Amino acid sequence: MYRMKVCVCLILFFSLGTAQLDYRDALEKSILFFEGQRSGKLPPNQRLSWRGNSGLQDGSLAKVDLSGGYYDAGDNVKFNFPMAYTTTMLSWNTLEYGKRMGAQLQHARAAIRWATDYFLKCANAAPNKLFVGVGDPNADHKCWERPEDMDTVRSVYYVSPSNPGSDVAGEMAAALAAASLVFRSVDPVYSKKLLGNAVKVFRFAVQYRGSYSDSLGSAACPFYCSYSGYKDELYWGAAWLLRATNDISYLNLINTLGANDVPDLFSWDNKYAGAHVLMSRVMTLFFFGRKDKYTPNYRKWYVDILCHTFERLVPLPSKN
Fold first, then answer.
1. What family does this chain come from, according to its entry (predicted)?
2. Using CB atoms within 10 A as the burial measure, which of 23, 46, 124, 190 is most buried?
3. Which tens digits make up the pLDDT trace of 28-81?
4. Rounded Cα gap, residues 98 and 194, in angstroms
5. Nearest partner of 84 among 139, 165, 27, judged by Cα
6. Domains, in order of start, for the chain
């Protein structure tokens, strides 16, 4: 998914770099890109007709159905960690700018749902297991082929109480919670289902703490190691659940997860900066005017990330 995002950025760069800026075309191509990464049985309204069904037996090695979701890039592995991050960010953008997306709003929702339908399978396929990936990344990277023709082993990976993955579970919970807000008004039944599963997956992440990199070894590293640890994903997931539920218990948890740390860069691995910005919005929307121990922080979180980002982009002049 990291390489997916790079390709989307390139589409935007070349589209916006022309003499006449066509933001509408750039947005359409960015969302259309997700359809090219789809795994599973494609729908009748698939716009990229050169893509066919693939990965229909994903999960069969574990006797579960894990078809669907997105391939990571030019390869045919499904890494849930970056896939969930991408889904969370697409949901956040849809929440913020959906009213300005025009005809692309329905395609953005479809892109989100393609991922969340898959995450629901991952969360409910077997008791005490959260499935987090399909495809042997080491074998897959040795053979580049169309997903319709792939013949590499479709290994199945999961985290469990004895082999935890708080980072990937926290990110999947964030994706489900953020998506529940996207569908809240247009499909309340689906939205409720997403939120219920977000709560369940997040509870799993908190109760059985540990990094999925440690549990999965070479299936995660060096491809998508959780270099920043798992506390940032717990913070990120709790922030999205706080926004989706207004449940103060998530705020109490956030205060134990480094909420006052100075934010760093924002990526599929490190979520602190994005979580700070999200929490500044949540605190403003839902807790504005409160006079208690929570209110002093929201402005600090917001200013910290803005100043930190500005200093990286525009170095301050030397004091000498």
1. Belongs to the glycosyl hydrolase 9 (cellulase E) family.
2. 190
3. 999 999 999 999 999 999 999 999 999 999 999 999 999 999 999 888 999 999
4. 19
5. 165
6. 31-313 (1.50.10.10)
